[in-house]
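Hello,

Our lab assistant flagged a job as stuck in the queue for most of the afternoon. It eventually completed. Since we weren't sure the result was trustworthy after the delay, we are filing this so someone can double-check. Below is the sequence as submitted and the structure that was eventually returned. Let us know if re-running is recommended.
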Amino acid sequence: MKTLWGWLWRGMTIAFLLLLLYQVWIFAHVLWWIKYNPSTSAFMETRLAAMQDTNPDARLQYSWVPYAKISNNLKRALVASEDANFVDHEGFDWDGIQKAYQKDIRKGKIVAGGSTISQQLAKNLFLSGKRSPFRKVEEAAITVMMEAVMDKQRIFEIYLNVIEWGNGVFGAEAAARHYYHISASQLSAAQAAKLAAMVPNPRYYDKHFNAPGLMKKTGIIMVRMNSSDIP
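-- returned structure --
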């Protein structure tokens, strides 16, 4: 029995050390990205691999642009659509989470996530798309790391450059050129609102760019975006 408990203890110790090393590895990346731009993300790599399963020559549309060269219209539209309290919270919008939970209870299934921009960025940068309790805990841990060492503008700048906007389309610059043939700095309020409305289901809206639901949500975002606070 003592031998069994000894092996269990060693196994738990090794697992803990590996988990700790993984957290250190993640935090090192977060620190590096305070100054240097990420060239890819876990989600981008996952999507590219999926695309290349059917087309080995597939490539992502992706081009980094600095925060100042992204239209304020798009920034306001995304805050209005995805995280109205972004500049005020510390990574988690507890009121939003509670409302999402209540909505899920009413519907009897998960229909609302309540994730903030910081949480979405944490997931996209490091984690797979598979839902699990461990992923949510890890997402929360990474969110805390980013909020502790990055200011809101840097978090938002990275988010704007790595989120998915279509099949193989990542970041504001690629999205603006893919859908409107202009740079991200030139996006109008209406164009920005439509791009923001696409974020929850970008690959679907890439193929259904004039879907009635998308147009309705675009109008709602346009009404809200003028009151959005951005970093």
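-- support follow-up --
The delay was a queue issue, not a problem with the job. The result is valid. The chain has a mean pLDDT of 89. The beta strands are 61-62, 164-166, 169-170.
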